[in-house]
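Worked example 3. Consider a protein that binds magnesium ion.
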Amino acid sequence: EAKKLGRSRYRFFSEALEATARARLLLERHIRHALEQRIFEVFYQPMYSFSQGSFCRMEALIRWRQADGSLISPNEFIPVAENTGLIIPLGSHVLQRACLDALKLMRAGFTIPVSVNISAVQFREENFLEMVLGTLNESGLPAEMLELEITEGVLATDMAWTSKVLEELRANGIRVAIDDFGTGYSSLAYLKRLPIDVLKIDQGFVREMLSDKSDADIVHAIVRMGQALNLELVAEGVENEQQARKLMELGCDVLQGYLYARPSPFEELEELLQSQHVKLA
Ligand code: C2E
Ligand code: MG
Ligand code: MG
Ligand code: MG
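Given these inputs, the predicted complex is written out as structure tokens:
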């Protein structure tokens, strides 16, 4: 009896695993197809600088629109793209698009650097530097106009490679930000030693900082540490005025979140910048 139960349980699990594997395979095929058909879009979300009183940068965020018009979240397909290696062509596509769009904005009179998310799989790829420098050069965008966002996980592994890549990026004038800061485990020594320009405080801390004192304390500590290491600070996921005011009080100058703008297609971002410009003039 017990044996029978064990067997049926085994069958249940193996069928569930097979179903998951099939779903991933299907998703992989769809990603490949979407790449070939150039279906992926890049949206942009600006970051607001208090001291400048204007938008100072924008983040490129990939979007996958389905036939019915709905969008699939990158949180769903980026992990599959990473596991299948498809993140390599996907990541270059985003970088290329982002450089060209930032250049277009520059020519329209808006000098706003663009920040591009880089997955750890891309970062560790042998040709990563060549890809970045090649794409940047081909686009014609000045290097100071490009920033790359990596996560803490990248810092924690393969120190020799990480510092080589970061040094090269710095030597070429490309800025580097640590995304979702505070969620991983960064050694403070790495932060001090590596050429990093920006810390992006994870939105999880910002979300709860008004109701949870320890989150507010963590944000405060990150800001102080960033200041001590001479890093720029950006807060992600700012949704209301109270959060913005508190962040400003704590010394965080650059804010990103729905309070200022949602990620939007390039044309909409351009309109937003135009209208802000007119308002300021
Ligand atoms: P991330 O880089 O930390 O990006 C921030 C995410 O928070 C974005 O989600 C953005 O739309 C969302 N967000 C912005 N403001 C707010 C806010 O005020 N409230 C809330 N609740 N959310 C806000 P999105 O676009 O779904 O991207 C999710 C993640 O997918 C990104 O997190 C990034 O890790 C990854 N990703 C997106 N595009 C790319 C890409 O081109 N390449 C790679 N490798 N990863 C990407
Ligand atoms: Mg990011
Ligand atoms: Mg983030
Ligand atoms: Mg994230």
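Take a moment to read the result before moving on. The longest strand covers residues 54-65. The mean pLDDT is 93.
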